């Protein structure tokens, strides 16, 4: 685990792969635009899921789902969520997979793109001999019409 002074106000403890991703995102988007551990309801400005979007037992945790990193635009409005996908640590939790899929739907319905990074993709991004970097990953994962990379 690594401790990072986040925005010089408080310290967060991250696993090594999380700290590495944080540095990559800060390099790409800027330190002030990468937010760690923001809840899905905060990212969506309190726009809670409607009953017809999710099953009754899902609505409570979707709003409180903690996203690993949120990326904001210049007006500090969240535009992109980046997270590691289940199985990154070789352990797959079906409940977490379902929660992550529901959170992705919740965010996408509100105009916020969600990107999950696999262990293989992250390894390629860290490899200095690879031509695959964070920007390449974003270009692959951001679907046409969702958001323009220039917007974030």
Question: Which SSEs are present, and which pair or pack?
Answer:
Layout: E1 2-6, E2 10-14, H1 16-29, E3 34-36, H2 40-43, H3 59-64, E4 69-72, E5 78-84, H4 94-108, E6 113-117, H5 119-126, H6 134-141
Parallel strand pairs: 5-6
Antiparallel strand pairs: 1-2, 3-4, 4-5
Q: What would you note in describing this structure?
A:
Helices cover 36% and strands 19% of the residues. It is of the alpha+beta class. The strands form two sheets. The chain has a four-stranded mixed sheet with strand order 3-4-5-6. A two-stranded antiparallel ribbon has the order 1-2. A hairpin with a 3-residue loop joins β1 (2-6) and β2 (10-14).
Count of β-strands: 6
The sequence of SSEs as H and E is: EEHEHHEEHEHH
Name the structural class: alpha+beta
For the CA atoms, what is the radius of gyration?
15 Å
Low-confidence stretches: 144-149
Q: Quick one: biggest sheet?
A: 4 strands, mixed
DSSP summary: helix tally: 6
What integer is the average pLDDT?
Answer: 77
Strand content: 15-25%
């Amino acid at each position: 685990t690594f401790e990072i002074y986040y925005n010089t106000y408080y310290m967060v403890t991250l696993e090594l792969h999380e700290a590495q991703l944080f540095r990559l995102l800060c390099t790409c988007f800027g330190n002030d635009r990468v937010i760690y551990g923001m809840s899905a309801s905060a990212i969506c400005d309190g726009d809670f899921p409607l009953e017809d979007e999710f099953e009754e037992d899902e609505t409570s945790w979707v709003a409180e789902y903690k996203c690993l990193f949120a990326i904001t635009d210049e007006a500090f409005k969240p535009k992109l969520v980046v997270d590691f996908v289940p199985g990154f640590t070789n352990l797959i939790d079906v409940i977490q997979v379902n929660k992550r899929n529901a959170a992705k739907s919740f965010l996408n319905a509100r105009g916020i793109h969600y990107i999950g990074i696999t262990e293989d993709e992250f390894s390629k991004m860290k490899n200095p001999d690879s031509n695959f970097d964070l920007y390449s990953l974003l270009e692959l994962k951001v679907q046409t019409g969702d958001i323009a990379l220039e917007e974030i």
